Amino acid sequence: MSRILILMIFTFFLSELHTRAQKDTATLMRFSLEEAKDYALAHNQNIKNAQLDIKIADAQVWETTSIGLPQVNASVGYNNNLILSTQLIPAEFFGGEPGTFQEIQFGTQHNATATLSATQLIFNGSYFVGLQTSRIFKDLSKHSLEKTEIEVLATVMQTYYTVLLAKSNKAILDSNLVNLNQTLYETEQLLTQGFVEETDVDQLQIAVNTLENSMGVFERQVSTSERLLKYQMGLDLDQPIKLTDELNAILTGINLEALSNQELQLQKHIDYILLDTQEKLQQMNLKNEKVSYLPTLNASYTYQEMAQRNEFNFFDFNEEWFPAEILGFTLNVPIFSSGQRNARVNQAKLELKKAQNDLELGATGLKLAAQQARDEYITALNKYYTQKKSIDLAEKILNKTSVKYREGMVSSLELTQANEQYLESESNLTSAIFELLNAKIELDKAYSQLQTN
After folding, report:
1. Rounded to whole angstroms, how far apart are CA atoms 369 and 379?
2. Which among 437, 383, 412, 18 has a CA at the least distance from the CA of 246?
3. Per-residue model confidence as pLDDT tens digits over 168-189
4. Which CA distances in Å does 64 have to 56, 71, 121, 128?
């Protein structure tokens, strides 16, 4: 038993090592912003579901089309009359005494029927309206896919920027922490020689501790944002990734001034297209209710062969089968429905009016959203320019304060204040870039400029 136990422990240990080795050697995937967007378009689950909706719409179009095509069915029936039904016939028909009855059994014990039937719709107004409606519904599915792709692209871009923002802030802190640790070391050396007070060292140590704590916060933010990005892209959450773009590099490739001068084209906006398609569906609904006043015409054909046996010998082809053939037409003419059809037409008219109101309201809302997006973009752009100027001043102040501190002209408190001001300026600039890029996303969405390839 002890050997078995040792073997089991050893096997488990090897399995754990293998699992960890697989995780450690997992292929690192690198993504630029464009590559992340392309990957999301191909693997995001919401997009896959929207693509499936289009296939479902295709199937529904064919389902509606097939209603107007010939419908052919075949059936075979068999009855075993275990006890034949008995009928009472007046006995006088057979020369018997009047007032009495003769018991008669009709039929045979074994009966079989083979039937082939076909039906064909000749005219039905609702059918032709249904064909048009199914095609519009398919268009609606395509527009919904485009809407989903736009939303996925926007969220992927925003999360990509969030990861870069967290990494940028972490890098700023890391660089500043190195410089501050060096200053702390030099100040400690000066303290041992009696050139500075212990308070100066303590002040710098507090600043170092604060930076180290902030580093941990940004490290966790990077990890959380990366997991969210992988989820949005359709990647396994355990898949290691590396983002190859940087916020400044992305911003460099944008014409910042041109973006605020776009013109809104409502007919190309996906939200307007969706509302317009909904209106068309309501038009079809009204049309369908109106054609319910029209007659319908159907044709049918039935061919049937019947066999009646006292023995179960239906596979004996020498025995006779009795054919029957029927061709029929059914004309259904609506005459009076106590106002039901009229009420349904009125309801459809009101639903259409609501859809038209929604379209008008949606158009106004899109214009308002576009103006707000433009205003927010201009605000973010001005903030970015302001922060660019501020960072230069903060860096200049920090450099001068550092020189003065080494020359003993300012205290460590003034140095840490200048350092904190520089850090805040760096962080503000990075945040301004982040806000500007996100404002660009919203601006592109509002003006139908966000490309789905």
Report:
1. 15
2. 437
3. 888 877 877 777 787 777 778 7
4. 12, 13, 12, 9
